[in-house]
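User: Quick sanity check before I run a bigger batch. Here is a single chain. Can you write out its predicted 3D structure?
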Amino acid sequence: MEQHIRIPEKEVPVVKETDVLVIGGGVAGIAAAVAAARQGVKVTLIEKSIVLGGLATSGHVCVYLPIDDGNGNKVYGGLAEDLLHVCIRYSQDNLPEVWRSKPDTAPADSERYMTNFNIPAAVLSLDEFTAQEGVDVVFDSVFSEPIMEGNTVKGIIVESKSGRTAYMAKMFIDASGDADLVYRAGADTETLKTIVSHWFHELDFDIMKRGIEEGDMLRAVPMRWLGLVPSGGAGDEKEDLTCDGTTTEGVNEYIRLSRGLALDFLKKNRRDDFAMISLPFTPQFRMTRRLVGNDELKYDDEYYIDSSIGCVISSLDKPATVYEFPYEGLITDKLSNVFAAGRMVSASGRGWAIMRFIPACVLTGEAAGTAAALAVKDECTVQQVDIRKLQKILEDNGVKLHRTKAMEGNKPKIWKLEKPDVEPGTPIINKYCVHVDPEGYRMAGDKH
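Assistant: Done. Predicted structure follows.
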């Protein structure tokens, strides 16, 4: 039988009143906060950890996946492109030279517009970037619950070293990754168990020597990937290595499983010429809970979206089919002043998997932040935002709202798993990372 206790009521101090409040300092939250600040409104970003970047940094997913379609056409402009360059501002990278000047197109056979980046350097660069843009970042503060008045969020309660405090705002952006605000505020959501994996950097003398000989830091200090390799779909993974990221029990189970994989690997590879040199400090969940919004990403035959806030792709596909994401996928009629941003926007099935990639998260963050600023200025609800005005600002900032003719021929590619011609346990090196799972499987098309 479930037990409950009653907590005595007490006054909670209001420590801040702002125009736009963003929950979550991952790449979507950063983009949302910066986009809103650039429109001249006051912005506060609440982050539960002490670093910005979310999965991209504390989660060790330090690979900014392609923002081109694989045929030489840039798909993501705006902040999705800007943040790529921010992440490598002070670090080593492997960005192809053809894309360094941020062109719209490159030869069709060019390498992809993507890069690996150094995590500490990216964290420090993101600190600088948000400060320069005038974003008030509040670290080490965990969102607890919304303060509601009907279907409007008036403020939020956070837990921090100062105890329970309140932040009040006119507009809110849920970039928590797990739809924490929209769920607790009463919106419709969907939950999904997702796969367990574990990324970490390692030192191996033989691999390091080759990297040094080639002058390649990323090869000298590679990333290893343990656990299940994603199939590219959503909901079709093995149940024995999946967890629910929306519960305390699920998060702790994920931590036990992922660190168990790392410990097993470490025991098998304990030797003088090998060292595990980093651990992720946030669970590497892909999809957990998302908004069921007024519309969602359509990826079957419906390409032109009149209310599009930008183009999206499954970044690993080559060529990548280009889709358009509707403004209505950021909002719900159940909440008057809340936007979703990042992997938790309204998209189901494979669409959910597409929207979790870093470039798509940044795109939705930029759109949500810009729309929130417009709503503040026009004193309107999220449903009343002038979409044409929003689209004009996004397009002026470099966002690709609609597919170009050059992108129309791209057809969806179905990924499958295949066994490589290497011994199980051998690191598999590709453009995106160095990874290996317990059985040595790799994604079809990877180089090794």
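The chain has ten helices and 22 strands.

User: Great, the batch can go ahead then.
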